[in-house]
Specification:
Layout lengths: L3 E3 L6 E3 L3 H8 L10 H13 L3 H12 L7
Antiparallel strand pairs: 1-2
The structure holds zinc ion.
Length: about 70
């Protein structure tokens, strides 16, 4: 039976069955390898979805302040 456990990294309450994948996705130390820009978007979204509301806001604020070269 899965039980509720707290992630020791972010303190989020999770099911014991999802803790492993949560840690892998939300706290991955390695750079995510993407084959193409098209491949990158779903991966970014998947990682984003694992974040807490507070961290999601942080990501959006970071992206909003990010400079990019107009094509
Ligand atoms: Zn966590």
């Amino acid at each position: 039976m899965p039980h509720a456990v707290r992630c020791d990294i972010c303190g989020k309450l999770l099911s014991s069955s999802t803790l492993k994948s949560h840690k892998r996705l939300a706290h991955a130390k390695t750079v995510v390898v993407v084959a193409s820009e098209e491949d990158a978007i779903p991966k970014i979204v998947r990682i984003y979805e694992t974040l807490s509301t507070e961290k999601k806001k942080e990501v959006l604020a970071t992206l909003a302040n990010m400079d990019f070269d107009p094509a």
